Amino acid sequence: MSGLVLKNVNKIYPGGQQSVKDFSLEIRDREFLILVGPAGCGKSALLRMIGGLDEISSGSLFIDGKDMTDADPKDRNIAMLFKNSVLYPGMTVEDNLSFALRMGKMAQEEIDRRIREISGYLKLSDILDKKPEELTGEETYRALLGRAMMRRPGILLLDSTIADLEESLQKVMRKEFKDIHKKMDMTVIYVTDNQETALALGTRMVVMNEGSICQDGTPEELAAHPANCFVGGVVGRSPMNFFLMKVFSEGGRIGLQGASGRMLVPEAVGAVLENNGYVGKEVITGVRAEDVCLSRASEDGQDGHFSARFQSMTGDGTMLRFQAEDADGICQAEGRTDFRENEKIYLFVDAEKIYLFDKDTEKNIL
Ligand SMILES: Nc1ncnc2c1ncn2[C@@H]1O[C@H](COP(=O)(O)OP(=O)(O)OP(=O)(O)O)[C@@H](O)[C@H]1O
């Protein structure tokens, strides 16, 4: 059993800077939780406090119902793998795996048993005799993970640890994480600034910004109903564009007027806007790149069609960047790559797929 509860946790440094603000979260035993947030939002600070490497300035931490706020790191049953973790130089992978347990005087038989088990899970058997400098990036990562798991921690903290691997390896490792987590009886907190991992693992995700939780849920829930613009921009299969548009009412229908086009919204959406007093006001309209299509319309002014100017293709050629009257954006290229810079293009936005946020609070209106 290794559930974890954080209650109103704060981290304030001697200079007065605060990295974690009133952070409360409950993580169930054996849960795999992904903590996503931009650089500097306090993810590592939070992990360091959970692991006992840094003091909790105020608030409390419970592990399995026991108050561990001030407990010694070695009493927390937690293993950590940080961005800058390295294997002990000069030692083989096997020695790296066994070192801490040998120092703790564990019986060699038990150490050997664990090495066999973990080597099996992490495919280390063929590299047990190798030294760190002989390992590839992926092998190093597997060995580091194995070393962290040798003590059979109840909780494993992983800090952006696969971010430095090549993209193809990251994919492999994400899949393996899922398998390893199933086999090992562990609660895992995985910190990353990359939502891809959370989407790939499909597990619970907490989005963090400026030291606080923005939203908590599955990646699908967060993508479908982001609590605010920030989460909308962070979570989802394609980037979200944001446009400022004015809500209008015309002939009993509600619509949105932007600088380069307009669209009527579905009746249910219109009702929410009307009932909440948004008619005549500006709202932030969020549209995912995958929901903006190149339009064949050749005239401005058609409902749902927006004029823009082509800027550039994305590196993989699947999306294009455009400049609308009031904002830059990104949309599907649909195989078209033959635009000239600044050429006029037409975009179609599916009104069924839009997100609407309050201009002042940036909170989701729908
Ligand atoms: N010892 C410290 N003293 C003062 N400020 C600190 C200290 N450690 C971290 N910070 C600040 O706290 C904030 C959060 O840092 P933290 O490393 O937790 O962010 P992060 O989300 O993990 O970012 P990254 O993904 O880049 O590691 C940052 O603004 C950082 O500069």
TrEMBL record:
Superkingdom field: Bacteria
ABC transporter domain sequence ranges: 4-235
A matching Pfam family: ABC_tran
Keywords tagged on the record: ATP-binding, Nucleotide-binding, Transport
Alphabetized Gene3D superfamilies for the sequence: 2.40.50.100, Nucleic acid-binding proteins (2.40.50.140), P-loop containing nucleotide triphosphate hydrolases (3.40.50.300)
PROSITE patterns for the chain: ABC_TRANSPORTER_2
GO molecular function: ATP binding
InterPro entries associated with the record: AAA+_ATPase, ABC_transporter-like_ATP-bd, ABC_transpr_MalK/UgpC-like, Mo/tungstate-bd_C_term_dom, NA-bd_OB-fold, P-loop_NTPase
Protein name: ABC transporter ATP-binding protein
